């Protein structure tokens, strides 16, 4: 039995290694082509850069100049960081209230959050765009509130599952010691929820950082551009695309979110499993 299990484990390792390489290959391909001349990206996209095709960081410099990448990078960081912070703060407090205060209102709030996870974005994007424009939310501060609305469903669901696993006695002991409900949440409950907070932060950050559709619908792109929108400006007339500059800008745009994911990935499984204990 042990030999069979060992062979089975080895086979699974090989299969998943191959699958991982296949998933990584498109990213590797983008990095390789970011150092090649524009003409050779289309002619030989799978070939490694040679002395004839290698251009160094020329594509990166041209991409930054053409897209105004520095400004776009700043707005993307601003929107992503604040959106994630607002989602974690508001949704964790909402989940705690839903679990600890059981009444009709909390049941309705929880059900609304679950329904929000099911409704496709395409069904509401035109109405959302119109309302955002009417309420003057077509700016980085307004889109943060919109991201809170779309991210609340999954975040509340995960936080609710985790709060159910926290013993009520811990909170009662804090209140006996004189803590107010707000102090109990921030000093006792919030630290315990750290794994789920990091999991939610990773999932939401990856979505918001890479999102193109919502910023393009809501933001005034003449004033504010995120990375995903700025990259689209490398498309010229009649379908022409500066592939070299685009590859360079794509590499720059994916590096921060990959670093963030690698730094926090160990908390993902811990947070998901913890949130599923009694959910």
- What's the story with the biggest beta sheet? none
How much of the sequence is in beta strands?
Answer: under 5%
| Distance linking N and C termini | 36 Å
Count the domains.
Answer: 1
> Mind telling me the CATH superfamily name?
MetI-like
Q: Tell the overall outline.
A: globular
CATH architecture: Orthogonal Bundle
Q: How would you state the average pLDDT, rounded? A: 84
Count the DSSP helices.
14
Please mark out the parts with pLDDT under 50 across 5 or more consecutive residues, or reply none.
275-279
Helix/strand order, N-terminal first: HHHHHHHHHHHHHH
The count of DSSP E runs of length 2 or more, i.e. the number of strands, is 0
CATH topology: MetI-like fold
Helix content: over 70%
Label the structural class.
mainly alpha
What can you see in these coordinates?
The protein is mainly α. The protein has one domain: MetI-like (MetI-like fold), CATH 1.10.3720. 76% of the residues lie in helices and 0% in strands. It has 14 helices and no strands. The protein has helices at 2-33, 38-43, 58-67, 69-100, 104-118, 125-134, 140-163, 168-176, 181-192, 194-210, 213-218, 227-232, 243-264, 266-275. Helix 1 packs antiparallel against helix 13 (243-264) and helix 4 packs antiparallel against helix 10. It is globular and about 75 Å long. The two termini are 36 Å apart. The model is unreliable at 275-279 (pLDDT under 50).
Key descriptive features of the protein:
single chain, 279 residues, mainly alpha, MetI-like fold, 14 helices, 0% strand, disordered C terminus
């Amino acid at each position: 039995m042990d030999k069979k299990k060992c062979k089975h484990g080895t086979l699974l390792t090989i299969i998943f290694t191959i699958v991982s390489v296949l998933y990584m290959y498109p990213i590797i391909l983008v990095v390789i082509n970011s150092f090649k001349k524009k003409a050779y990206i289309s002619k030989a996209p799978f070939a490694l850069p040679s002395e004839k095709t290698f251009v160094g960081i020329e594509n990166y410099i041209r991409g930054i100049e053409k897209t105004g990448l520095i400004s776009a990078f700043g707005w993307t960081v601003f929107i992503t960081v604040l959106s994630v912070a607002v989602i974690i703060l508001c949704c964790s407090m909402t989940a705690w209230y839903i679990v600890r205060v059981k009444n009709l209102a909390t049941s309705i709030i929880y059900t609304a959050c679950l329904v929000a996870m099911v409704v496709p974005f395409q069904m509401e994007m035109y109405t959302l765009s119109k309302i955002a424009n009417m309420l003057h939310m077509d700016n980085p501060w307004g889109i943060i509130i919109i991201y809170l609305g779309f991210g609340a469903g999954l975040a509340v669901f995960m936080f609710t599952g985790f709060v159910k696993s926290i013993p009520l006695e811990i909170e009662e002991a804090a209140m006996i010691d004189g803590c107010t409900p707000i102090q109990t949440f921030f000093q006792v409950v919030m630290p315990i929820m750290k794994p789920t907070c990091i999991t939610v932060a990773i999932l939401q950050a990856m979505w918001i950082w890479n999102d193109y559709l919502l910023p393009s619908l809501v933001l005034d792109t003449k004033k504010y551009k995120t990375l995903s929108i700025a990259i689209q400006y490398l498309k010229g007339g009649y379908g022409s695309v500066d592939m070299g500059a685009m590859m360079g800008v794509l590499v720059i745009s994916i590096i921060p979110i990959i670093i963030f994911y690698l730094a926090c990935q160990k908390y993902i499984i811990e947070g998901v499993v913890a949130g599923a204990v009694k959910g």
